[in-house]
């Protein structure tokens, strides 16, 4: 889940659309108080924060996030029209992980989102994804089936991880491509099928947890 705090509706919708097309879930907010309420209910993986907002501004919201133990490690990308060097320094000093100045292209925006998520993803301590006999340990980059390690290629590992992170949700081949391969929409969707096949083979019986949803894509867990 990515939270996007931006008061300009067209920009907020454009960002949400781009992220959703890349397989992310997004919640948009037009100002800070609504956003802070949502934070208490659910912590996102990433926050996109506009600086100039009605009410409390983005820098102040950022400082507040960094002061609280429960939110201090959530990555934040500042988004703003104020692209001067001074603002950039202030933003980074306030604890932003990255900074992007309007206007910007969607390709650059998505690349930065992915880079920040990748850098910050390494912090997941002790997290284990499971499905039946299958376990995936992001920290040590291991996959175990009934306690025995299975050797996967990097893409097989990332594909499995992406499916496990969205357990119970059907993911389309395009979503999988853009998240795991970071291609855009003209990627070769057959690549996904080839990797799912080899993944199932390597996982043996545990591979049956990866379900093909006809005409849509793949899913792990949930009803078959
Ligand atoms: Ca604004």
TrEMBL record:
Q: What organism, scientifically named, is this protein from? A: Candidatus Egerieimonas intestinavium
Q: What InterPro entries does the record tag this protein with?
A: CheY-like_superfamily (IPR011006), OmpR/PhoB-type_DNA-bd (IPR001867), Sig_transdc_resp-reg_C-effctor (IPR016032), Sig_transdc_resp-reg_receiver (IPR001789), WalR-like (IPR039420), WH-like_DNA-bd_sf (IPR036388)
One GO term of the cellular component aspect? Answer: protein-DNA complex
Q: Which domain of life is it from?
A: Bacteria
Q: Where is the Response regulatory domain?
A: 1-117
Q: Mind listing the GO molecular function terms for this protein?
A: phosphorelay response regulator activity; transcription cis-regulatory region binding
Q: Which residues carry this modification: 4-aspartylphosphate?
A: 50
Q: What is this protein called?
A: Stage 0 sporulation protein A homolog
